[in-house]
Amino acid sequence: MRNVYHDELSGLIDTLVEMTQLAESAMTRATTALLDADRELAENVISADRRIDDLQRDLEERAVGVLARQSPVATDLRVVVTALRMSSSLERMGDLARHVAKLARLRYPDSVVPAELRATVLEMGQVAERIVAKAGSVIATRDVQLAAEMEVDDDRMDALHRQVFEQLLSHTWNHPTEVAVDLTLCSRYYERFADHAVSVAKSVLFLVTGSRDEDVAAQRI
Amino acid sequence: MRNVYHDELSGLIDTLVEMTQLAESAMTRATTALLDADRELAENVISADRRIDDLQRDLEERAVGVLARQSPVATDLRVVVTALRMSSSLERMGDLARHVAKLARLRYPDSVVPAELRATVLEMGQVAERIVAKAGSVIATRDVQLAAEMEVDDDRMDALHRQVFEQLLSHTWNHPTEVAVDLTLCSRYYERFADHAVSVAKSVLFLVTGSRDEDVAAQRI
């Protein structure tokens, strides 16, 4: 019985790690679709999001099953409750990648991103890719040091987000309002994606250390 | 023992209802602060958000306590797990009201909202106010009919959200890019606020009927 129980708990962790991999793949492909105005790739990201949603639903059912059958206490109980919360964040990260892909599809065959912002958006995609990859490692290994490193990535994402606004509001900006609207939303999707990745890592930190870092909530813009 | 247990469960529900009231009050005041460029009111909304955050944290601790001590099963277990999920949505709704208030503060003494969009933003505030009020009633009463009505409010919010974009992209739009950026974000905050309210109501529906409505996720833009 104990073995089945611990298999169930580690199965929840495995699913969370799988969700980070899917979210990473989704955001990476969404960024490429956005920058290359690749409609097929955008469609692919949009339809693949269902897989993350299904995993979340499945995880939730299994978590409730563990709670009902095993009545875990102490750390095990925290693991299950935290897994529920993390799965919501990861599901939401999938949604945000889908939103980026939808923008790419909406403007096809035009590109959403004008030349002067390509490097910024490209880097937002890269930061998103590595922050969610780190979130996956933190879930799998409970590496507190790596979780702390993610703050640096999140700061970088916030800086890039501000950089987009600075460009949009600079006197050299000469694109239609539509482009500004698209980029405002797009930039916010990346920024929220990183926030969710950090919140996943903070959940792991809380499991390991028992303390919450208030700074994370404060960093949200 | 049973009585303490049921008091604890109904205490979770009471806290959720209180959170809806705080979120309602926050978004209503944030809308006023935005439309009247009232910095003091904006500050008030921003500082009051901590109360919702504290309630959510407290609810989570109590929910984990109930799970650990009482090992609820069946419907009671679903109530606790669902309360955790709903509290996250409500906490996030408080954040979104705070974001609206922050926009008002950022542009003070200017108003974020130009004359031609005042009526639209005012109505977004009203829809937000009534959809969260209904979410509170649905939590308290498990009124399935009222939960269904919220879809109408959410559809209205989506229509208003589109209306904002139509204005921003119309050929008569003649404001600086900054105004378009602010309104894009602002409109998205209201739209997400309504989404979260609907997701709260859907959680209650799931508790009552045991079935999930797939349409809700599909409606997210």
From TrEMBL, chains A, B:
Please indicate if the UniProt record lists S-adenosyl-L-methionine as a keyword. no
Asked whether the UniProt record includes Cytoplasm among its keywords, one would answer yes
The record describes its quaternary structure and partners as:
Homodimer.
- Which spans are transmembrane here? none
Keyword vocabulary terms for this entry: Cytoplasm, Phosphate transport, Transport
Q: Which InterPro entries match?
A: PhoU, PhoU-like_sf, PhoU_dom
Any Pfam family from its record, for instance, is PhoU
Please give the family membership noted in the entry. Belongs to the PhoU family.
Species in which this protein is naturally found = Kineococcus rhizosphaerae
What function is annotated for this protein? Plays a role in the regulation of phosphate uptake.
Q: Which GO terms describe its cellular component?
A: cytoplasm
Q: What is its main location?
A: cytoplasm
| Record's protein name | Phosphate-specific transport system accessory protein PhoU
Where does the PhoU domain start and stop, copy by copy?
16-103, 121-204
Biological process according to GO: intracellular phosphate ion homeostasis; negative regulation of phosphate metabolic process; phosphate ion transport
Cellular compartment(s):
Cytoplasm
